[in-house]
Amino acid sequence: MILTITPNPSLDRTYEVPTLVRGGVLRATADRMDPGGKGVNVSRAIAAAGGRTVAVMPLGGPAGAVVADLLRNEGIPVAGVPVLGPTRSNISVVESDSTLTKINAAGPELSAAEAEALLEKVREYAAGASWIACCGSLPRGLPLAWYAELVDRAHRAGTRIALDTSGPALTAALGARPDVVKPNAAELAEAVGRPLLSVGDAVEAARELRDRGARAVLASLGADGQLLVDGSGARYGSARVTTVRSNVGAGDASLAGFLGAGGEGPAALAAALAHGAAAVGLPGSVMPSPADLDPSAVRTTGEPPLDRPLTEPGHP
Fold it and tell me: What is the rounded distance in angstroms from the CA atom of residue 278 to the CA atom of residue 295?
């Protein structure tokens, strides 16, 4: 079972339009409503693949109730922590050329008691988990050290933990030695404080995060593939994508594939690539099922192409 923690979940509304016109009145060609948040999406991807998962999160107000109902409708058990503030609602607008515009609300401010209740809820379920995935931004009220405390508690329970966050929350948690961190190129550049212009730059940045405590780094490089840097060295892979419909949740699907395949080694990297590539071809934040995966589109190598420029360079 993979336990996910989403400290700042959301109710996500996605609208597809031909072109986004500032100040105009637009008619959506399609729309959908999904439970949102990075950890929520990891649970959804695990469930879509037939795996077992439990989603832990704070929930408040009508939007929080809808998030819980939508997850249960997908067969995902929800371990909710009631909070006073309302769960946030986010809006995504996807244009016909796949350009994505997102408006993310701040979310509720959690009290010290609510923050501790969230950690306690994780403790209740940690013993039955093969992995804990803690994902996303920290809501107001949670200290920067909250993820580090979560990593410490997971390790005391004997459970491996993956961390997918960014900025000060990521750097503050590195010293607690998370088993896997999963930055994208921009987040990796922010963590090391310098631009990343090539695959080699990304490899060096990932090694720096390992020097600072992370046991493994799974770095998403967008169209340029993914890196896995761990104690055995650096591995690189890419996946062919034929249709891009929405990249919302693609990184979360990738992490789910990685953890579902054991969370280490070349097979897990290949699974991460296959899940991420499949997710971008689906609408909104729909997570891929096994039928959506194309393992033949994935290529992994033992040696990263260090001199290859990044299509989307990372900047701090």
Answer: 10
Q: What is the pLDDT of residues 4-17, one digit of tens each?
A: 999 999 999 999 99
236: left (phi over 0), alpha (psi -120 to 50) or beta: beta
What average pLDDT score do residues 136-159 get?
A: 93
What residues are annotated to the active site? 252
Q: CA 93, CA 124: separation in Å to the nearest integer?
A: 38
CA dihedral 308, 311, 313, 314 (to 10 degrees): -100
Whose tokens are 């099922």? That residue is: 289
Strands (E), the chain: 2-5, 10-17, 30-36, 53-59, 78-82, 88-95, 100-103, 131-135, 160-164, 180-181, 196-198, 217-220, 226-230, 233-239, 298-301, 309-314
Q: Which two tokens stand for residue 18?
A: 């031909």
**Residue 300 tokens, joined:** 């992994």
Radius of gyration of the chain (CA): 18
pTM value is: 0.92
